[in-house]
Amino acid sequence: MEVEHTTTPAGQDVIQAEGGEAKEMVNFTLNFKKEKYEISWPWDDKIGNLRAHITQLTGVPIPLQKLMVKGAVKDDSATLRSVGITQGAKVMLIGSTISDVMKVNLTPDQASTVVAEEETKSTEPLCEQTKHKKIIEKGLPDNVLRGVKGRNDPLPSTPLVGVLNNRGTNVRLTFKIWSQELWISSKTSTQQIPFPQIRDVTSEPIKGHEEYHIVSLQLGQTNTEHTKYYLYWVPAQYTKAIRNSVLGTFD
User: Fold this and answer.
1) Out of 48, 84, 118, 210, which could bridge 76 as a Cys pair, Cβ 3.0 to 4.6 Å?
2) Domain 127-247, what architecture?
3) Contact 204, 121 (CB under 8 A)
4) Domain 25-103: which topology?
5) pLDDT tens digit string along 199-243?
6) How many helices (H) and strands (E) does the chain have?
């Protein structure tokens, strides 16, 4: 199923799924502390779904989020449109990350220990950790591109298809170099992530399928599981080019 991006007369983005209903997108800015996040999201999607994305960006768990749009947003079943999020709107997030909470409720020594443990990467390979194994065990997507171990290729001119996201959904990756954006598209929606919001890109080979990697995008300022977005079955030959393109490095 192809997804086509069009524009309404008022300038709103629309995602048109072939054979399905068009989804109108709203573009707005989320302000949290000193950070600003540019977000494009289906206008008629539920606030609860948006909150899950906000957790990935900021590290603030859903129960600790307070969204301000002409007052506090309290109904997670309401849509972005119904709560008053308009094109170009500024939405304020008030909340605390897990690290912030720990620092308040624990002694300084306890807090530093907990934060250090939270930010320490597990020595266990990603592909052997339970939450990642569940997605890997779905098997290779039918439309996955051929992976090549031990080679570094430039990004192809066409999107990378046959990748699974952190929910196990089949998506395609489009790297918009000129606009500095990564588009992650499923059959029903497209998530547009500006490169500056991606603080780091790492990857690990999948055991038994080393020609494919798990790629981790760090979408928040802190390096914790709450701020990571995972992509599975990424062809190994493109992982270095992905990192260099997104971070602007040439290692």
Assistant:
1) 48
2) Roll (2.30)
3) no
4) Ubiquitin-like (UB roll) (3.10.20)
5) 899 999 999 999 999 999 988 766 777 778 899 999 999 999 999
6) 5, 13
